[in-house]
Fold:
Amino acid sequence: MTTVILAGIDLGGTKIAVAIVEEASGRVLARRQAPTDSHEGPDAVLQRMAALVHTACGDASIAVTELAAVGLGVPGVYDLATGRTHFLPNLAGAWRDVPAGPVLRQALGRPVWLINDARAFVLAETLFGAGRGAHTVVGFTLGTGVGGGIAIGGRLFWGIDGTAGEIGHLTMDPDGPLCTCGNRGCLETYASGVAITAQAVQRLADAPDSLLLHLAGGAAERVTPALVGQAAAAGDAVAQAILAHVTKYLGAGVANMVTTLSPDCVILGGSVANLGEQLLAPVRASVRARCRAIPVDRVRIVQAQLGVDAGAIGAALWAGQQVNQ
Amino acid sequence: MTTVILAGIDLGGTKIAVAIVEEASGRVLARRQAPTDSHEGPDAVLQRMAALVHTACGDASIAVTELAAVGLGVPGVYDLATGRTHFLPNLAGAWRDVPAGPVLRQALGRPVWLINDARAFVLAETLFGAGRGAHTVVGFTLGTGVGGGIAIGGRLFWGIDGTAGEIGHLTMDPDGPLCTCGNRGCLETYASGVAITAQAVQRLADAPDSLLLHLAGGAAERVTPALVGQAAAAGDAVAQAILAHVTKYLGAGVANMVTTLSPDCVILGGSVANLGEQLLAPVRASVRARCRAIPVDRVRIVQAQLGVDAGAIGAALWAGQQVNQ
Structure:
């Protein structure tokens, strides 16, 4: 059996990550990173991505022509059939109708497949990370925003139009805060990094002596999930209240996915998930309390394992699945 | 090709419905009903079900031995492998650990398979009702309680333990009303027949001149979904407020299933769904407002088509799928 080698590109708002991946093992043979610098425009960014793939192939001592396929994970909406982006809100100009797939295919001479970055994360974690061996996996990416995806039997579940698993936009309270998507009460408005900072700004206005404010250098708008975790562990009441608020809604969101899909594994990734047990323990408790009719002991609720490589690995594996279809 | 004939039994809290069904067409060849009279105990009820199957087979001019299989839809939790019921809360004694499958198999001499009644409804509507031709279907049964199910590619989706699709217990507000399941804010606490009557009792205490109260003969506890629909259509403010409350949460619940699964069809059945467009129109509007990133025009949100037969038909089709597996 020949070894199938794939390249995956994770296009983010601030950086591009490339991984050269062995399909059968998920092993990363080489990785490269560069700033996105999206203000330079799509053409420059696409050429930078192509160059990174070339360099990473060199690191792995393979020729670009040896790649079975290339996957491109994008932070937004795209068209699978044409490889064009529809809307990547975190990139300058939002990449409306950019032929990213065709341009990369031209530059690399290999087949290129696009995928949503959160779905790429879920595929990688399902096949080679925290979800190994599970049949039904639900993944949440808790970063600047909240994304997600669903994998069943080792393959992503897409629904009829590729939007299945957009679970950062589950309504957790019909009258909740306005979300950037236009809906009210989305999970993203409670459990994203941005939501945590917004909570801190609001709560610290009345708590000038808070350890959390001190850790953030006196600037509430600089509060990160990591600082909230640090202050909460040290007993800071504001940080503990923020964590309780986040896990109340995140716990209900995870419970809703357990109720809907009865998965054997729920994976939390992204910067907010780096809170580890401070996040996981109350989320698990919420699922136990809310899903009483369901044997929730069979559901593993765990942190992601592949770290920052997950997006690029998942994009690579996705391209491999498309080629083998 | 021989015609495969199945029997389906829908075991409800008040009545038993039996249908003799042609597998290939979903056509009902004969149907019979009887009161459940669950106070007589499981043995009497099981013998009554077996007798109904015999009678219905006679109506259809076939012998019981010609049945390929028998499906039993139960309102609660059961074990698929053993055919024993775990917990049917609406039946006297709750049928804890009753060997319903083995007893019926003994009485009828045919293989018997159990299924949850809401999942049976979804399977029937998917294959031969409102969901015909759809790939991914989500169904809600809006009756005394709220049940549901998910079908993908013409088969029910079960998750790892058979509880997938228990979407009457989606948390719609983490601080919402206490549900009989022990959770707070379940969809069932907003959109069931019981919830509608409870809303009426609460709101009519301050509205003695309401048309709705008049239609209910002055007794708020006799308000049904149908009376709410009738009064709302005539301009009654209390009835309109009740409908708005129901559809606010039901709309968000349906939107959450669209966001999660990107289905091509959502089916609403049960007594509350008989409100028809009074329910469907605001639910569709809610989905459009809440799922802005999703092309919701591709999702049909419709009323069930098979009426009271759906449960028995679905149980029969389920048994057929089990035999052919």
Observations:
- The radius of gyration of chain B is 20 Å.
- Residues 84 and 99 of chain B are 4 Å apart (CA to CA).
- The longest strand of chain B covers residues 15-22.
